[in-house]
């Protein structure tokens, strides 16, 4: 028996009790569940990765109420579609308007919802893969009593979803009498936290399996083949993409090589070598810095190797440099010092450059006293001589706070020694 609609579409829950894997949001003890059971549906924004069940939850809420329900997708609908729905909704006491990919609406399109929301003509359920605090207007957010983040489904929830599809004779695959071992269902569930992908994968596996007199028998070979060829990708402009890059950097910063390799693997499956390389270069100077400058200097050649090799070989230098960065001593003191100086300059920046440091490479500079008292360090033992370099008003200002980690410990010793000499010389002039 073949259906025109995909299995994931057919198995969409019709009531909130059928929603799988989001118990913290719509479980029987949650305030949202109790509201809906009593017929009250607040306007809300549902935020999460693809396949976490945002659309399913919206349709389940509709099925659990007696309100009129309109559903549109912001990628294809426009302002006129919204105005038409609002006009129809005015004929009823209140209607639910579900807008999938609401972040695709521009400000004008989002603003067209405000009056109807305020008047209670519509209850809005917006779904987005983007962080709503970045992608949805504040005016819309302030009118949504609930902003719920749906998490990827865990293995147990996916297995529950798959079993439900296998048992359902009306919408699922029940009439096909599919025979599949529990371990194979677990293999499917372990490939993704995306319910839609898992159901689509199950559907492919079932129709790729051999049919016998007892029904359809699913083998490990068929499951492995379909999983291998399912592929993986992520939207390189979506929230998950930036979260993965953030996870990579924070894992390296936290010296967790295993976690760093995990996030690197997920990013590699997305195929964006340029973003990975750029982030690793930033990490080298932001998080390793003076603690291991030799390693920083090796990151760029590694990235150039990645660019020259391409995938799959590019994973080899990426793995090496990721582990090295993870296990290296860490320091952010250099750029933090610069940030402190920038903040000071932006706030003040009125001090004059000391006369002995001013440019003296032009006729008349000597008459102005520019550079005349400058002491050339290379003319002195150890290439150091006392003189003030900061303007007089801030000559005791310090920005750099060295750490005693890795190579920076050596730099700290030099820095401290020079400051000690400077203090001794200052006392002679005061």
Automatic annotation (TrEMBL):
<dbReference type="Pfam" id="PF12002">
    <property type="entry name" value="MgsA_C"/>
</dbReference>
<dbReference type="InterPro" id="IPR021886">
    <property type="entry name" value="MgsA_C"/>
</dbReference>
<dbReference type="InterPro" id="IPR032423">
    <property type="entry name" value="AAA_assoc_2"/>
</dbReference>
<dbReference type="InterPro" id="IPR003959">
    <property type="entry name" value="ATPase_AAA_core"/>
</dbReference>
<feature type="domain" description="AAA+ ATPase">
    <location>
        <begin position="40"/>
        <end position="154"/>
    </location>
</feature>
<dbReference type="InterPro" id="IPR027417">
    <property type="entry name" value="P-loop_NTPase"/>
</dbReference>
<dbReference type="GO" id="GO:0006261">
    <property type="term" value="P:DNA-templated DNA replication"/>
</dbReference>
<dbReference type="GO" id="GO:0017116">
    <property type="term" value="F:single-stranded DNA helicase activity"/>
</dbReference>
<dbReference type="GO" id="GO:0003677">
    <property type="term" value="F:DNA binding"/>
</dbReference>
<dbReference type="GO" id="GO:0008047">
    <property type="term" value="F:enzyme activator activity"/>
</dbReference>
<dbReference type="Pfam" id="PF16193">
    <property type="entry name" value="AAA_assoc_2"/>
</dbReference>
<dbReference type="InterPro" id="IPR008921">
    <property type="entry name" value="DNA_pol3_clamp-load_cplx_C"/>
</dbReference>
<dbReference type="GO" id="GO:0000731">
    <property type="term" value="P:DNA synthesis involved in DNA repair"/>
</dbReference>
<keyword id="KW-0067">ATP-binding</keyword>
<comment type="similarity">
    <text>Belongs to the AAA ATPase family. RarA/MGS1/WRNIP1 subfamily.</text>
</comment>
<dbReference type="GO" id="GO:0016887">
    <property type="term" value="F:ATP hydrolysis activity"/>
</dbReference>
<dbReference type="Pfam" id="PF00004">
    <property type="entry name" value="AAA"/>
</dbReference>
<dbReference type="InterPro" id="IPR051314">
    <property type="entry name" value="AAA_ATPase_RarA/MGS1/WRNIP1"/>
</dbReference>
<dbReference type="InterPro" id="IPR003593">
    <property type="entry name" value="AAA+_ATPase"/>
</dbReference>
<keyword id="KW-0547">Nucleotide-binding</keyword>
<protein>
    <submittedName>
        <fullName>Putative ATPase</fullName>
    </submittedName>
</protein>
<dbReference type="GO" id="GO:0005524">
    <property type="term" value="F:ATP binding"/>
</dbReference>
């Amino acid at each position: 028996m073949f259906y025109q609609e995909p299995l994931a579409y057919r198995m969409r829950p019709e009531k909130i009790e059928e929603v799988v894997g989001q118990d913290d949001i719509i479980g029987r003890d949650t305030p949202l569940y109790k509201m809906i059971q009593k017929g009250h549906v607040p306007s809300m924004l549902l935020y999460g990765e693809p396949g976490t069940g945002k659309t399913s939850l919206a349709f389940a809420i509709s099925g659990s109420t007696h309100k009129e329900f309109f559903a549109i997708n912001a990628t294809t609908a426009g302002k006129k579609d919204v105005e038409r729905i609002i006009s129809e909704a005015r004929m009823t006491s209140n209607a639910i308007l579900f807008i999938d990919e609401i972040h695709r609406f521009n400000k004008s399109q989002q603003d067209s919802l405000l009056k109807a929301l305020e008047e209670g003509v519509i209850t809005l359920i917006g779904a987005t893969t983007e962080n709503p605090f970045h992608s949805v207007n504040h005016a819309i957010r302030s009118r949504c009593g609930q902003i719920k983040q749906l998490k990827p489904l865990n293995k147990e929830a996916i297995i529950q979803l798959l079993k439900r599809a296998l048992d359902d004779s009306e919408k699922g695959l029940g009439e096909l009498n599919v025979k599949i071992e529990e371990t194979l269902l677990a293999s499917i569930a372990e490939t993704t936290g995306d319910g839609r992908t898992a159901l689509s994968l199950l559907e492919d596996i079932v129709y790729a399996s051999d049919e016998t007199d007892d029904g359809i028998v699913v083998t490990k070979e068929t499951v492995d083949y379909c999983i291998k060829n399912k592929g993986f990708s992520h939207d390189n402009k979506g929230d998950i993409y930036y979260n993965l890059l953030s996870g990579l950097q924070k894992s390296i910063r936290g010296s967790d090589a295993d976690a760093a390799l995990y996030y690197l693997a997920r990013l590699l499956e997305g195929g964006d070598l340029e973003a990975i390389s750029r982030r690793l270069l930033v990490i080298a100077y932001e998080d390793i810095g003076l603690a291991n400058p030799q390693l920083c200097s090796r990151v760029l050649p590694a990235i150039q190797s990645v660019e020259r090799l391409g995938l799959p070989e590019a994973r080899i230098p990426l793995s090496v440099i990721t582990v090295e960065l993870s296990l290296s001593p860490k320091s952010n003191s250099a750029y933090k010092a610069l940030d402190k100086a920038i903040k000071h300059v932006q706030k003040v920046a009125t001090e004059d450059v000391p006369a002995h440091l001013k440019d003296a490479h032009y006729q008349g500079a000597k008459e102005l006293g520019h550079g005349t008292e400058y002491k050339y360090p290379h003319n002195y033992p150890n290439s150091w001589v006392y003189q003030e370099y900061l303007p007089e008003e801030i000559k005791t200002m310090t920005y750099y706070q060295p750490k005693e980690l890795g190579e920076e410990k050596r730099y700290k010793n030099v820095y401290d020694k020079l400051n000690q000499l400077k203090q001794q010389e200052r006392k002679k002039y005061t």
